[in-house]
Amino acid sequence: MIALYRAGTSPLHRSPAWVKLAGLAAIAVAISFFGAWWPGLGGAAAAVVVGFLVAGLGWRELGRQMVGIRWLVLLLVASQLVFLPIPEALANTLRVTLVVLLAALLTLTTPMSELLDTLTAMLSPLERIGVPTAQVSLTIALAVTTIPVLASLSRQLLDAQRARTGRLRLRAFVVPMLVLSLKHADELADALRARGVA
């Protein structure tokens, strides 16, 4: 399984995983209620920037994450502009972008093993009513980490393509990206089997 965790000693690195998960959930819920309220969205964007800086990841890593999800952002904007006014389409896209960046921040500052252990512990009361907490925690962890992983893969692929040819070609990007995505899916399947989930 690809790990995006960056070791560090920042306050975010030292914070318990449950605190970061609760913060991610709280901010994501708050953002969902903002709608097209731009002051609120601006405040959430500032919180994301502060998070990256406090974690010691810096502007460069924040820029790398934003570059990595640029195709997702463009796809979201283009698909929504068909049905929604421009302000609403931009606000919806910004909300999704902020949540993805927060998920990336969580992944960059929290080891996967700690994330899984925390989720399993948080969900353990549900075992009494038959909920498979190990599988649920793994699913949540995968959902949080998959988009940053795919963004990282696309960024590596585009960097390699730019280094070889000096330009970007969509056709030369799609097929290798599909191969890398399927390879990542195989690695996830191996990880699931190793944990006795599949």
From TrEMBL:
Record keyword Flavoprotein present: no
Membrane topology note: Multi-pass membrane protein
Primary location recorded for the protein, binned into one broad class: membrane
Entry GO terms, CC: plasma membrane
Keyword Transmembrane in annotation: yes
Cited InterPro entries: ABC/ECF_trnsptr_transmembrane
Transmembrane segments: 21-38, 69-86, 129-151
Taxonomic superkingdom: Bacteria
Keywords assigned: Membrane, Transmembrane, Transmembrane helix
Localization terms from the record: Membrane
Name recorded for this polypeptide: Energy-coupling factor transporter transmembrane protein EcfT
Organism: Pseudoclavibacter endophyticus
